[in-house]
Amino acid sequence: MQKPFILIAEDDADDRFLLQTAFEENGFTDTLEFVENGIELIEYLSGIMHKKTLDILYPGFILLDLNMPKKDGREVLKEIKQHPELKKIPVIIFTTTKNENEIRRCYELGANTYVVKPVSFDALVRVIQEIRSYWLNTASIPA
């Protein structure tokens, strides 16, 4: 069986680089797939569903930035969580927005977790380790 991959929706190139480096710093060899906006994320997920195989492999989780061009993270989150097949994929909001109303709204839309991006690289490495460990090793997710 293939190991799950991680899908990351992040429009900032520097943040994508830091995330990739944080996974590497932890020694993780996960396949990371990056998309740069909400439209690309929905298209990516649609492509997975339209493959003509019975063994569809969904991401182990999605790291979703809220503030992206073309279609923001809130719209994408709502679409994913309203879809009968995609809604089982854990979606971790990973954003700089630290607003109580925004956090509440994301949980109402179906977010599995809301994480404010750390300001230091060392803290990012720790947060990535915790998120990955929880969603790929601890949590039980339907197949």
From TrEMBL:
Keywords for the protein's UniProt record, in alphabetical order: Phosphoprotein
Domain Response regulatory: 5-132
Domain of life: Bacteria
Modified sites of kind 4-aspartylphosphate: D65
Lyase keyword on record: no
UniProt-listed InterPro entries: CheY-like_superfamily (IPR011006), Sig_transdc_resp-reg_receiver (IPR001789), TCS_response_regulator (IPR052893)
BP GO terms, sorted: phosphorelay signal transduction system
PANTHER family: RESPONSE REGULATOR RCP1, RESPONSE REGULATOR RCP1-RELATED
Protein name, entry field: Response regulator
